[in-house]
Amino acid sequence: MKPLYDLAVIGAGPAGVAGALTASFAGLDVVLIDAAPRPGGQYFRHLPQGFNAQAPGALHHGLDGFTRQWETLRARADVLLGHKVWAVERAEGTVTVRCLEGDREERPRTVTARGLLIATGAHDRPLPFPGWDLPGVLTAGGAQALLKGNLVVAGRKVVVAGTGPFLLPVAAGLAEAGADVRGVYEANGRLGLARHPLLAAGKAGEALGYGASLARHRVPYRGRHAVIAAHGEGALTHVTVARLDSAWRPVSTRTVECDTLAYGYGFVPQLELPVQLGCATRADADGSPVVTVDGGLRTSVPGVYAAGESTGVGGAVLAEVEGRIAGRSAAADLGRRVPPLPRLSRRRDRLAAFAKALLEAYPVRPGWQGWLRDDTLVCRCEEVPLSAVREAQDLGAIDARSVKLLARPGMGWCQGRMCGYAVACLAGEDPAAPRRPIAQPIRLGDLAAPTRSPLEG
Amino acid sequence: MPDVVVIGAGVVGAACAYYAARAGLDVVVVDRGPVAGGTTGAGEGNVLVSDKEPGPELDLALLSNGLWRELAELDGFEFEAKGGLVVAETGEVLEALTGLAGKQGVEHTVVPSGGLGDYEPHLAGGFAGGVFYPQDAQVQPMLAAATLIRRGADRFGRGTLMLRTGVTVAGFLRDGDRIGGVTTDHGDILAGAVVNAAGTWGGEVAAMAGVHVPVLPRRGFILVTEPFDEPLIRHKVYTAAYVTNVASDSEGLETSAVVEGTPSGPVLIGASRERVGFDRTVSVPVLERLARQAVELFPALADRRAIRAYCGFRPYCPDHLPVIGEDPRAPGLHHACGHEGAGIGLAPATGHLIAQTLAGHRPDLDLTPFRPDRFEERR
């Protein structure tokens, strides 16, 4: 551990690892920090041990390359896994990263660096619907965790629903692991994938791999369909699947038996750290706030860079490219000799254009709000039903923040990470960049104590 | 044409509107944002009499305290008459504290060191004693403000009290020398009088009318813990240092945490006081100090997690008194702003007094100490 690094990188996913490695090769002293005990981020972390051997090539797409990068990085830079960052500050050209090390017995740690690369990725974007709080209903990311092997997947009757290309690897992964996947229900048209320039982005192989896997397991994949209600006494037993019109209003419904529902409506970039630093944000193609960056992935705050999903949801390949560009920028800004590499920027532009096309092909349509009943919980932490949101609006709440202040959605443990998108939609606005001065829960005793650097232990 | 336009749908504007409607006036409340979206939505909900020096602000607080108890009859928000416990670190401080309590003439009980545990079983040991103020109370400020407007409309008629959110005032209409309404981004609103209840932004509103009212922001951070199953803290608890900080002129950071439980479970710790303009950048040292003081008061809090922090901007005037009353420099314009960290507590009395002046009655309290032009001589 060093008292002052050249660059701190937060996030050990594809963007963070590539960025850290690139910066290290360019001569910077780098430290990489991640909350999880294993590297990989959302994309690689959840692949179970021994899964690679059986899975079709597409499923561990890029894992070998990532593993090689990780091993190289570990030999060249300091790596702090299991470190949750709860605050970042910047003063006089130095960034201070405040972390909590460990799980139950947390210890405060402080890392300081001259530059900061934020590669914190994104989390699932669920929508509320009647029954979404039943045991057995999982986010798509939660289903990936299920695949990790903690729970028996084989024999489970699973429905996969939501929107976006991410549903395919989830369904294929579940089917490969022995689950009985009853159907994949894509709320947008399933032609979205074929229509868009997958070939141009070199993703055809990946998409075909998932398609072949689903076909082999005889999994039906339906467009313009959604799960609009989940049912069961104490646990999930069946779901209501609706055929949708173009605004996602149900046209007809039927019942599908299942004990597990994995669903997701895209991703929410994690922005609390850049917002703490005052980085400028913008609305992405789907309305989500993302960090504004220049061609070198520099944010509006000097010495602070962002790469991966925090600059716009675009997947692992784009994230890695952005990480490399950001690592080069950080090195160049600290006076290292970094030859220009226009090829990399062109690659990023191409991938980003594809990501934008995907966001536009898989939007969230307003009709989902009609699936809700008065008693449907919008916020599960604080148990806020739709009717309470409507009452708050009736009292004069005209935006998501005032709905939150009057009815308490987003006030609980997850701080609106689960319900923030839905509440913003219900309030009739795009979600705002999250203002969370405390990015992770921290014991008051730890907050009160003077924080120690890793050196002091 | 309404009799009154109230600028600002925070708790002070809501109270002005409620009492004006009750007095038989037709009222329109406009706010550029939602109801209670400014400082009201970033406060703790303190209704305190314990922290005021004897004088006009304490008179206002006592009048308000009684009015809050009446307003609590309106269904829609909870008035928690929990009482406040002020603790003293040393015998010397305790002496000063009991001296202040005697001068205030407010209902109170002096609590010896050994008696503190009866009030707060989890309080740290070692305090010299304290003073308990049974009138100190708590409201959820956003719900209280929204409820005043809603119930006012229900009781006195929707034509009588109307809320228009998302309407930004751009200037004033004049009828000769008199203020005769406002211009907004949604058209003009003619009215017999205008109430400036724009809180921290009250100085900007006054400037649109060509008058100087020095209202400045003082930033306050509040820490919120995870919810507790069993209430750990029964009252509002704070150290005597709070009283000196409230009246302080210091530019720098001051913290003296008020710690209390809430009906929904979390413990609130706040607030700090800093003069840094409208800067929302997170200040970790401020959060650390709040946490330290809370743990010093209640050691059991050390193992509980803070899950959230928020900040707001308390509107303060150089003499730490609010501005209440009609502006002789702009007849027809009434100010009700600059309540610093006490806006929730002082709102009903402010609304009541403004309604009295609007209706041409003699106000229950002398408004001279709060007059809007009192800063002229210092300029």
From TrEMBL, chain A:
Q: Which InterPro entries does this one have? A: BFD-like_2Fe2S-bd_dom_sf, FAD/NAD-bd_sf, FAD/NAD-binding_dom, Metab_Enz_Cyan_OpOx_G3PDH, Opine_Oxase_asu/HCN_bsu
A Pfam family this protein belongs to? Pyr_redox_2
Tell me which domain of life the UniProt entry assigns to the organism this sequence originates from. Answer: Bacteria
Q: Which GO terms of the molecular function aspect are on file?
A: oxidoreductase activity
Sorted alphabetically, the keyword list is: Oxidoreductase
Domain named FAD/NAD(P)-binding: residues:
5-311
- Protein name, UniProt field: FAD/NAD(P)-binding domain-containing protein
Could you tell me which species this protein originates from? Streptosporangium minutum
* Lineage, uppermost ranks: Bacteria, Bacillati, Actinomycetota, Actinomycetes, Streptosporangiales
UniProtKB/TrEMBL annotation, chain B:
The UniProt entry, under InterPro entries, shows: FAD-dep_OxRdtase (IPR006076), FAD/NAD-bd_sf (IPR036188)
Which Gene3D superfamilies does this one have?
D-Amino Acid Oxidase, subunit A, domain 2, FAD/NAD(P)-binding domain
Q: Does the keyword Lyase apply?
A: no
MF annotations from Gene Ontology? oxidoreductase activity
Does this entry carry the keyword Transmembrane helix?
Answer: no
Q: Name one GO cellular component term.
A: cytoplasm
Sorted keywords for this record are: Oxidoreductase
Q: Where is the FAD dependent oxidoreductase domain?
A: 3-356
Q: Which Pfam families match?
A: DAO
Question: What protein does this entry describe?
Answer: FAD-dependent oxidoreductase
Lineage here is:
Bacteria, Bacillati, Actinomycetota, Actinomycetes, Streptosporangiales
